[in-house]
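To the wet lab folks,

You asked to see what we're planning to order before we commit. Fair enough. Below is the target structure as tokens, and below that is the sequence we designed to fit it. If anything looks off to you, flag it before the synthesis order goes out.
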């Protein structure tokens, strides 16, 4: 039976997993959950932007969301502003909401593209029909209506949070729920000679800890999955060449923007994440195209406040562990995989892995069929995210540096080639199993990069251009009005969002 669970690592992944296991394990069969980490080693200290699925996680662990927001000095995130990705000086916005209103079963993006082809209506931009984006770009936000009247009323929100404070909050909750915490440094794992499974881990102070199931949340080190069980890492650097980051917080000034800024730079991009007490900044870059010194200089040239800490340098190899669940070890968090921070998928992958593990919870910790399903789904999920991230780079019109010339000429994954071909052909979204990002997210990036369907839905032939124009203009005006009337201040925005959250 799986009764004793040992989690190695107390970063975001370790504490999210510990809390979820105690809150959601099968009723009547409590688990003995122990988490081991090392204060001397610390955690990665980045991972501050989330996607709306964070609210699903918080609901699932019955979190006190206002307390979490207070403790982790969180701000609201309604999407990401992409600056200079299509071309220098151009911006597009990936908001967490739908566009316009579909008509007669035809998606709004098709209706608008048809209208533009009919009467050249270039004054109507798709982004104007995304209420979530329009509010965020004005520094405003209103809670999503309980009774949406059109597609554009359907949107969600997420959080920016201080990674260290977030982990501390989770830790307090997990300890209060019965998780046992041990501070110590991992030394080695004992592996059963017949089973090949881990039977115990030993810490450098000699303590030996046995368990039925081991969860590897030890970050990039992958102490159990990589080092003890020798699972290989699959690198996707040929598709996603950014492999380093330098992060540095600065003092904040003025109200926090309710979105992350992702600005493309000559060999990667930089993030700007506003929190209540500071701004998180980072530059993600490809070491094949830029030196560490240049990367830091460029980051600091864009920072708009006094630096609050020394730069934090991080190296990574974009990719994933070949199999995250092997025998009685499940890898969650950076030990399982990391592509890069664009679109903020690290924390949502942790939540999704926890969900999968709980759904497939093994009575016998060695359950090959359950492990195979976990691994199959995890790989599909990573591949879908990979394709979405590659899209951001591959269709850029930038050719102003070696990095951009390289990345726009590189071959694409076959799955992305197919998606793009179908969208280009008639504006249809290919939906695979285990997509993290839904149609409206793909649309935001397609449209932002100037990808337009060549042919449109044949049902549009029923429409009259003048009627469609009138309807679109009225909708555009209504959305802009609502965006301008939405609450402005951070505190008010969060308070109102919380009335319907999560
Ligand atoms: C540059 C960058 C930016 C990112 N930005 C985002 C973002 O905006 N949004 C997002 O969702 N995700 C982001 N991520 C991903 C996010 O940071 C991680 O998914 C998240 O922090 C989880 O990390 P972790 O807990 O797996 O690993 P870590 O935080 O590295 O934790 C590892 C734990 O293992 C422990 N440990 C290690 N070795 C030992 C040992 N020998 N003995 C005992 N304990 C040990 C450490 O003490 C620590 O507690 C980013 C990642 C990077 C690299």
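Sequence we intend to order:
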């Amino acid at each position: 039976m799986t009764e004793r669970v040992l989690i190695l690592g107390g970063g975001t992944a370790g504490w999210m997993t510990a809390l979820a296991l105690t809150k959601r394990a099968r009723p009547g069969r409590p688990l003995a959950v122990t988490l081991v980490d090392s204060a001397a080693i610390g955690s990665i200290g980045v991972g501050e932007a989330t996607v709306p699925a964070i609210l699903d996680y918080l609901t699932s662990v019955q979190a006190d969301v206002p307390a979490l927001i207070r403790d982790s000095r969180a701000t609201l995130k309604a999407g990401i502003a992409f600056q200079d990705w299509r071309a220098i000086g151009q911006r597009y916005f990936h908001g967490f909401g739908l566009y316009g209103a579909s008509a007669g079963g035809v998606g709004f993006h098709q209706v608008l593209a048809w209208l533009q082809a009919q009467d050249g209506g270039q004054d109507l931009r798709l982004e104007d029909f995304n209420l979530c984006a329009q509010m965020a770009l004005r520094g405003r936000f209103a809670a999503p209506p309980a009774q949406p009247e059109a597609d554009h009323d359907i949107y969600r929100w997420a959080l920016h949070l201080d990674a260290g404070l977030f982990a501390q909050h989770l830790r307090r909750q997990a300890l209060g729920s019965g998780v046992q915490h041990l501070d110590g440094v991992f030394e080695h794992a004992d592996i059963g000679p017949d089973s090949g499974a881990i039977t115990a881990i030993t810490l450098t102070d000699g303590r030996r800890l046995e368990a039925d199931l081991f969860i590897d949340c030890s970050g990039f080190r992958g102490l159990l999955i990589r080092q003890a069980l020798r699972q290989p890492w699959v690198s996707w650097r040929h598709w996603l060449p950014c492999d380093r980051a330098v992060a540095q917080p600065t003092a904040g000034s003025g109200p926090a923007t309710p979105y992350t800024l992702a600005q493309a730079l000559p060999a990667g991009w930089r993030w700007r994440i506003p929190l209540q007490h500071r701004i998180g900044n980072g530059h993600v870059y490809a070491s094949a195209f830029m030196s560490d010194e240049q990367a830091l200089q460029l980051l600091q040239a864009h920072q708009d406040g006094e630096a609050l800490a020394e730069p934090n340098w991080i190296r990574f190899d974009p990719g994933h562990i070949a199999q995250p669940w092997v025998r009685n070890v499940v890898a969650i968090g950076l030990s399982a995989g990391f592509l890069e921070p664009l679109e903020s998928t690290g924390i949502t992958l942790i939540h999704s892995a926890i969900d999968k593990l709980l759904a497939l919870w093994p009575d016998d910790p060695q359950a090959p069929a359950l492990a195979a399903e976990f691994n199959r789904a995890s790989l599909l999920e990573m591949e879908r995210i990979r394709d979405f991230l590659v899209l951001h780079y591959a269709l850029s019109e930038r050719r102003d540096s070696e990095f951009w010339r390289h990345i726009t000429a590189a071959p694409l994954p076959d799955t992305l080639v197919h998606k793009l071909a179908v969208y280009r052909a008639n504006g249809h979204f290919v939906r695979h199993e285990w997509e993290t990002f839904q149609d409206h997210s793909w649309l935001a990036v397609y449209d932002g990069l100037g990808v337009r369907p060549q042919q449109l839905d044949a049902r549009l032939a029923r429409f009259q251009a003048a009627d469609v124009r009138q309807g679109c203009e009225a909708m555009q005006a209504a959305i802009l009005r609502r965006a301008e009337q939405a609450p402005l201040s951070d505190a008010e925005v969060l308070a109102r969002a919380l009335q319907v959250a999560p």
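Structural context that might help your review: The chain has a mean pLDDT of 94. The longest strand covers residues 268-274.

Thanks,
Computational group
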